[in-house]
Amino acid sequence: MSDQDTLVFADRDMLFPAPVIDGFFDRDFMITNEPVETGYVGGSLMTLGASGIPPVIFQGVRLADANPNSDRLIFAFLCRFSQPIPDPMNPMSFLNTIGDDEIVIALKSSFVSGSEADVRLIVINPVGTGGALGAAGSAGSAGAANDIRNNRTPRQALFYKSDGPESWIPASPTGIDVKVRSWNPSPGMGADELAWSVEVSVPRTAAGGGGAANWIDIQNDFGLYFALTKIVGVGGGMASQYVFPIGSGSFPGFYDTNPLSDFPFGHGIVPMGAAPASAARGVYFMPNTLNGWQGIGQRAVGSSSLSPGHQIQATNNEIVALLGNDGTASAGQVQIDFAMAHWGLPSGNPNFWTRPEGLLPVKIPVGGQTVANAATNVVFKSDPWTLDNMTLNYKGSGKTQRKFFEDNPHQCMWAQATALTTGVNFKQASVRRNMDFIGLSDVERDAVVSGEGYDDPPNGKADHDFILQTFCRKVIVQEVVKNVENVEDDTKQLLGAALQAGRTDDTSDNVATMAASHVAGRRGGGTQFKDSVVYIWITMGYRITDLSVIVAGKKYPLLDNGCGSFGFVAHHTGVADNLSWSFSGPGLGRFSSGVYGLKVPHKGATTIGLRLSAEPDGPMGDSSKELPKLDPKEWVPDVGGGRPDNPNPGDSDPKPDPTPKPGICGLIALGIVGVPLAFAATQLFA
C-alpha cells in the first residue's frame, strides 16, 4: 500500500458534526454565508490533476454506528474548471455535453476477493447543461450571481452488478444517498465556468443496502477504483479523466469491462482504531501561508526565512524546501531533488526537467536528514548557488547562466522527496510550483509549452496538438475580512500568498504575517484592503491523444491532462476595474473565448506570449482578437461517437491501450484532512 493506491476512511472526528449529505463540502474560494464543512476532519483527502489549484478533489470518511447495518462510508468529489460548450447553431444556448461529466465508482467487497459477485458499480452524471438540476440558486462572493445550487439530485445515478465476464446488469440497492451542488465561480469575468461537487453515502453491509442481490459487504480492506471524467469544451467535446489508483490507465467505459481484470483496484482502508501510518500520514511539504506557495522556493544565503522567495537572483541564492511529518514515527534520511523548467506547460515527466548547473548537492542534503514525527518547518537547503557568469550558451541561449536567469527569473520548480531509509511514508512525495511574484499593473510573460516526454503524435503528425482552456475568478479581499469566520484555510493561504507579492526576502516574513493576520480576521486593520481584489487566472493544458472513452453512453476523444496548468494569482487595487488577457504566438489559434489550440513540435517546444492587464475602462476577459479562428473539425479526432442503448452493446470497438504517456492524472497530493502594489501578480502554476 502507498499514497498512490490507498485511501483511508477513518472515523470522523467526534468533536465536529457529521457531514451533511447535500453535495457541499468545499466553497471553492468563494465567500458565502455557509459554515465550513467539518464532517470530514479525520478522513482522507486527495487532489488530482494540475499543480497549484487542482481541478479535482476527493475526500472520504467513515460514519461509524453501533448497528453494523447503519455503518456508512462517504465519498466526496469536487470538479472545477469545467466550461459549457456554445451551440454553433445557437450561440445563446449550450450543448448538453457538460451533462456528460461523470463519476464511475467500482467497489469490491474485499481487496483480495476473486469473485465477480463481489463487485458493484455506481455511475453518476451529476449535472445538466446549466448545472445541478432545479431552479437557479443563491448568490455568493460579494453578492455575485454565483448560482449556487445545493442539495440537488443528480441528473442520473445508475447501479450495476456483474452478470459474468464483460457483462453488467442493473442493481437496485437501497440506503444509498447521492447529492449534488453546482455553482458559477466567475460570473461576469468573460470566462464561463461551471463547477460541481458530489457526496455519496453508501452502507457497509449488504443488509444495509437491500440485500446481497443488490449490494455487498464492504470489508476493512476493500477494493476501490474511481474515474472522474469532465468534458472539455472544444467542438462536440473531449474527455479529461482523473483516476484512482494514481497511475492507472484511463477508464474506457464500463460497457465491455471485466469486473475483476479491467479494474486496477486500489485499497480502501477502514481502520479499526487509528488510521495506519503507512496509508494516511507521513512526510509532506508545508502548505501554510507563511511558507510561500507549496513550501518550496528561493531565499538569500544564510537567511532564516520560512517564506521562500519567488525569483532566482543573479547572486545570493539557496533553494529550500520546508517539510513536516504528521506520521507516528520519525522519517530518517530524507532527501530532496530539485528540478526547474520555464514557466508554462513543461513536460509532465520530471525526467525532462533539469537540475540547474551548479545547484548542489544533487540530493539535498548528502546522507539525508531526519524529519521527526509531529515536526513542522524542517528546512532542506541547497549549498550556496553561484551562477556562472563566464561560460556562454547556457541551455543554448547564447548567454551566461547568470544572464539567462536575470532574463528568466521566473522558473517552474519540481521538488521530489525520497528517503535512504526504508519504510518512510510520504503523504506528499512531490510538489510542482512556479517561482514568480511580480508587482505591475500590466503583466507580459512568455510561456513555454513542451513537446518532450510524450509518445509520437497521433497519425504520424510532426506536432502535438494542445488545448489551452483559460478561467478567471475574482475575490474581493474586504469580503474575506468581513466573513472570515466562514473562510476556509486554503482561501486564506492563497490570499496571503497574493498579498505578499513584490516583497523582498528581507520583508517577506513580516508581510506574510501581516497578510495572514488581516485575512484571518483583524478587521480593524483590514480597511487598507478596502479597494483590493485578487484574481485567480488559470490556463489548463491538455494534449490530444489517439484514445477514446465512453462517457454517459457517448464516445469522446481522450485528452492527456498530465501536462498541468499555468497562471497567476493577481492582487490589484481597483475593485471596479476590468481584467483582460490576450495570447499571441506561432501555432496558436482560438476556438472560442478562453479556449485555444496550440501546435507543439514533438520533442520540441513552442513559446507563446501572454499579456494580463487591469484598468478602469479596459476590456473584460479574453482579448486575443488577433488570433486565427480555429475549426474544431480540424482538431477533434473522429472517434465514431454514438450512444449505445444499453451498457452491453456486444459489438463495440476493441478496447485500446488506455494509458496516455506520461500519465493521465498529473500530480497528486494526499492528506488527512503586504502593502498592495497597483497590480501584484503571483505566478503560481507550472
What does this structure look like?
It is a single chain. This protein is mainly beta and 686 residues long. The strands form six sheets. It has a 16-stranded mixed beta sheet that branches. Helix 4 crosses helix 5 (505-519). The longest helix has 15 residues, at 505-519. It is globular, with a radius of gyration of 24 Å.
Could you give a quick summary of the protein structure above?
By secondary structure, the chain is mainly β. Helices cover 6% and strands 38% of the residues.
Identify low-pLDDT runs.
Answer: 90-96, 502-525, 642-686
Given the structure, what is the number of helices?
5
Shape by Cα distribution: globular
Radius of gyration equals: 24 Å
How helical, in percent, are the residues? under 10%
Distance between the termini: 29 Å
What fraction of residues sit in β-strands?
Answer: 35-45%
Topology, please?
Elements: E1 6-8, E2 44-49, E3 56-63, E4 72-82, E5 86-87, E6 90-94, E7 102-108, E8 119-125, E9 149-152, E10 156-162, E11 168-170, E12 177-183, E13 194-203, E14 221-232, E15 238-244, E16 266-269, H1 277-280, E17 283-285, E18 296-299, E19 318-325, E20 331-342, E21 344-345, E22 364-371, E23 378-381, H2 401-407, E24 411-419, E25 430-434, E26 436-439, E27 442-450, E28 463-476, H3 477-482, H4 489-499, H5 505-519, E29 532-551, E30 554-560, E31 565-573, E32 578-584, E33 588-592, E34 595-601, E35 605-615, E36 621-622, E37 667-672, E38 679-683
Helix pairs in contact: 4-5
